[in-house]
Amino acid sequence: MSGYYLGFDIGSVGSKAVIINDSGMVASSVIPSGTNYATTSAAVKAAALQSAGLQESDITATAATGIGGRNAGADSYHGVIICDARGVNLTFPTARSIIDIGGQGSQLITMDEAGQIINFNISEICATGSARLLQVVARILQTGMDEIGPLSLKATKPSNFSTSCTVFLETEVITRISQGDKPEDILAGIHRSIADKISGMARGVTLQEDIVVIGGGALDSGLVQSIEEKLGMKMLVPDNPRLMAALGAAVIARETKT
User: Fold this and answer.
1) Span 143-161, mean pLDDT?
2) Which H/E stretch holds residue 254?
3) Residue 171 confidence class, pLDDT cut points 50, 70, 90
């Protein structure tokens, strides 16, 4: 059955919408999540429809995920882990593991060749293993999010941080600045802290290649390299790593109508 299918991922930091048909992705949209998830969902859907040149009546089925996904008005709601797996499976059929570094925390997922979950581990919300920490540090250093990855790769003496709490880590970053640590060394140290968190989570999940890094943290090349070095494994990164859960939701919407 041909048609268009829309998936939402309404997250704590960003909201995403993806439209697919039988041939693949047609259009997508990413906007900041506001305080009203229903309003945000309507806005991100409208942006995706405009990008695709479609009307809402052209959409055959919808599905949603994310913290605000139940407010999206979609035909069905599904957990982020399931949607991550389906989106990554479509993008990288050889993938068997996922590291999702999102705005609230991180998730490690293992799956089979069909994108079905085998095992997973989720970090606590207040932890160093989140993309939110990167936003905090970028703000303190007055550096753009798109600049922190390349800048961190110039580090010669990564800073050491003693805490794993985001709140206290912010204070520690300010202390490091006052002590004369270079921005690139601070960023490299933060990346190592997040990589350490990911490594600790991996003790409960047996990661197998191919491993795909997704979420906002995957946009940070320095962080991806730190994770590779810590785990001793090569990572794959999608062209649009923030869209994987929304893509997975769209895939599930398509499956319900075919």
Assistant:
1) 92
2) helix 244-256
3) confident
Using the 8-state DSSP alphabet, how is residue 77 labeled? B
Nearest in space to 78 (alpha carbons), one of 66, 60, 87: 66
pLDDT at res. 170: 81
Task: Specify whether 143 is located in the same domain as 232.
Answer: yes
| Residue numbers of the domain that contains 144 | 94-237
Same-domain pairing of 104 and 86:
no
pLDDT level of residue 9 (50, 70, 90 thresholds): very high
Cβ-Cβ contacts under 8 Å for 180 (sequence gap 6 or more): none
CA distance 153 to 101: 19
Domain check: are 23 and 122 in the same one?
Answer: no
Quickly list H helices, 142-217.
145-152, 166-178, 183-202
pLDDT at position 129 is: 61
User: Which comes out higher in pLDDT, residue 218 or 167?
Assistant: 218
- The DSSP output letter for 236 is E
Rounded to the nearest 10°, the torsion over CA 70, 74, 76, 81 is: -60
Question: How far is Cα 190 from Cα 99, in angstroms, rounded to an integer?
Answer: 17
Number of domains in the chain: 2
Please tell me whether residues 136 and 196 are part of one structural domain.
yes
Alpha helical stretches, state H, 69-130: 80-91
What CATH number has the domain bearing residue 9?
Answer: 3.30.420.40
Question: Taking the model in full, what pTM does it have?
Answer: 0.92
Residue 231 and residue 111 share a domain: yes
